Amino acid sequence: MAEIHSLAYVGLGVSDLERWHWFATHILGMQVSKRDEHGISLRMDEYCQRFFLEQNPIDDLLVAGWQLRTAAELESYVAELRDKGVPVEALSDDLLRRRMVEKAYSCQDPNGFTHEFFFGHTVAELADSFRSPVLRGGFVTGDLGIGHILPFAKNGPQTVAFYRDVLKLRVSDYIREEIHPGVLVDATFFHTATGRHHSIATAQAPTPKVLNHFMVQVEQMDDVGLAYDRAVKAGIPIVLELGHHPNDKTFSFYAQTPSGFNFEMGWGGIVIDDANWEVRAYSEMSDWGHKRNVVL
Which of 42, 240, 292, 295 is the most buried (most CB within 10 A)? Predict the structure, then answer.
């Protein structure tokens, strides 16, 4: 039975490409692989494109790109989606070139953004290894994908059912916490077949933006602290200070992107073995740190 391998790329619509160019390279430590009339392609490893930025006043999430292992698995997965009544479209040749993939399909999320499913990514030449402008190490990607995203849900139960029953993502755990008097966060976390604790999470919230945050994971703990210092020095609003999550065991901080949604820079984190995993519900987002400076 076909199943998603990993969250392999994310597309963002941003209003200030120049600011994002600087931010992605000098704060996050990504590498620009291409810039043209469509926007900016960003590398985190040997993949030619892990994030792409398109000039767009929406300043929000556009696309989540899910990778399948083989062309046959992709076709089987898409057939299952259609059997469930999901309208699925093949990407045009132009979009395939822009995504730098061999074959891909797309469908709409209940919350207003696009999910793409693909096979066959483009990799850089051997001589062109990933070089971060600022990281001491690199990003944790490979089979685990790029990290994770947390898009807000307009309808929590409908969104959870879509991720679990339609996309066939696996529930990792839940967190239910009152972060302010009368403000309850009820978040559900999902992982793919390769086991990064979560590639996507969701929580219902009355907000104009879809994306709450994206997370990237680094190989060296020092790179979290150094990124924190770079963000503070640059005057970037820190949303959650350095801290630790009890469910995925990640050490991280959160800060604001130039588009107003947030990013998380993390180190550590669980890789789930489903044969030995118990789904739990937690009562707190953080077991230490993560002092809140800006309302999420």
Answer: 42
